[in-house]
Amino acid sequence: MLPIPESQSADPLSSVDQIQNLILDSADFEEFLNELARFSAHQVAGSGDDALCGITLLRDRKAATIGWSSDSARQVDEIQYKLSQGPCLTAAKEEREVYVPDLFDEDRWGPDYAAAVASHGLRSVLSVPFHLQGEAQAALNLYSDVPHKFDGDVADRARGYTREISQALRLAVRFSLHTDSAANLRATLESRTVIDMAIGIVMAQNRCDQETAVRILTDASSHGNMKLRDIATSLVKSVGGTGTKTHYEEPDRRQTG
Fold first, then answer.
1. Taking residues 23-50, what's their average pLDDT?
2. Are the CB atoms for 39 and 164 separated by under 8 Å?
């Protein structure tokens, strides 16, 4: 049986449905975000056309491009981070749309920003905020080599599209935050384990109390210009330790009863 063309089959998938498929088909969070950026660039620019797209995330007062349709999109986003100003930062921080019809006529962020982005062959920029409801702040950044590219219908499409996919991005960011928290907790516990072992070794070797052992280790760290964990790891290995094991388990979210 021949496959049925999409136009003759069921109703075409909505943006949300297609993004859900991206989530299911992506190997990890980073791959999903890059695929989302490529999909966004095509969706907003329109049929038979394209644009560069980056997704900026503000979290803990730091800005980063978490998804990009191409290396060029990532590079022009990073121009703003180096200058600490630009349309995508303004859009994310103030949660309002920012449009640059023509970089040749732009001076809101000083001459350096417009000139640097234009040097990549680009002429117009549109940044539309996502509404993540407190999870973080983010914006969709679109770039084109055509001036006034994002006038009229294209801007309307961008607004509608960001509203439509904000919930999907919010869920993705929440998952990322929880993953980071678990990883940070695990690293902290692992570091604490080896330091506690080293304190015990120093106490045994020097027949001293815990406070004195901690001071001996911190002095060695300071004088040797080494991190305390590195000093501790070296000491544990020197007495025959082959490694440390931290008893850490992910929280069991299943209810018992």
1. 73
2. no
- Decide if pLDDT at 212 tops 80: yes
143: helix, strand or coil: strand
> At 90, is the pLDDT very low, low, confident or very high (cuts 50, 70, 90)?
very high
Cα–Cα distance, 114 to 123 (Å, whole number):
9
Give me the count of residues in the chain.
Answer: 257
CB proximity list for 177: less than 8 A, separation 6 or greater: 59, 135, 136
Cβ atoms of residues 231 and 221 within 8 Å:
yes
Q: How many CB atoms lie within 10 A of CB 79?
A: 18
* DSSP symbols for 185-196: HHHHHHHHHHHH
The confidence band for 21, taking pLDDT boundaries of 50, 70 and 90, is: confident
64 and 54 Cβ atoms separated by less than 8 Å: no
Question: Is there a contact between 41 and 53 (Cβ–Cβ < 8 Å)?
Answer: yes
Cα–Cα–Cα angle for 51, 55, 60, rounded to 5 degrees? 160
